[in-house]
Design goal:
The protein has seven helices and two strands, in the order ααααββααα. By secondary structure, the protein is mainly alpha-helical.
Length: 176
């Protein structure tokens, strides 16, 4: 990720990922939310390809952007009318959602700066001490690795849980 083209591509994909994720959360039409989520998942696959994790990028496209999105769309169509609009949230519910999001972001940033990266150096220590350079490859390895302090196993466990929830939703919808 040293060339200018890769850096520009990274920022374009990162900005599009944030925009599509925001649109998926804020839209009132559920099929549009599923489409925006698809674009967010595809952007994630592009980031994996840029980090050099070709297999994980291919799995992201095949499993999540392909299979899981099809299941989500079928679950939506089976349980709701596609053109129904969701009722706007009450002000107190919006306040609860925003405060939960802010608390989650604070906890995520705290974990990001205190989590030990490979070499038992945290990100905050590496930034303040001018320690060993932490490149995108090391950060990607820390996020999708399967060793201690790496997150591939929890990532896959959450994906299996989401798949079980979708299948459960389809089964409940068919019993009605």
């Amino acid at each position: 990720m040293d060339s200018v083209g890769n850096i520009i591509l990274y920022f374009v994909v990162a900005i599009s990922m944030v925009v599509f994720a925001w649109m998926a959360v804020t839209t009132t039409k559920i099929l549009r939310a599923a489409t925006y989520l698809l674009f967010t998942l595809l952007s994630t696959a592009i980031i994996y390809f840029q980090l050099g994790f070709e297999f994980l990028g291919a799995v992201q496209i095949a499993v999540y952007a392909g299979g899981i999105m099809v299941l989500i769309v079928f679950a939506i169509i089976l349980t709701h009318k596609p053109n129904d609009k969701a009722a706007p949230l009450a002000a107190h519910r919006q306040l609860i959602g925003v405060s939960a999001s802010v608390c989650g972001a604070i906890l995520l940033l705290a974990a990001l700066f205190t989590m030990p990266l490979p070499g038992n150096v945290s990100l905050a220590e590496a930034i303040s001490a001018g320690g060993p350079a932490i490149d995108m490859h090391r950060i990607g390895t820390a996020l999708v690795g399967s060793e201690k302090y790496q997150y591939l196993l929890p990532f896959e466990a959450v994906s299996v849980l989401l798949l079980a929830c979708i299948i459960g939703g389809v089964v409940i919808a068919r019993k009605k």
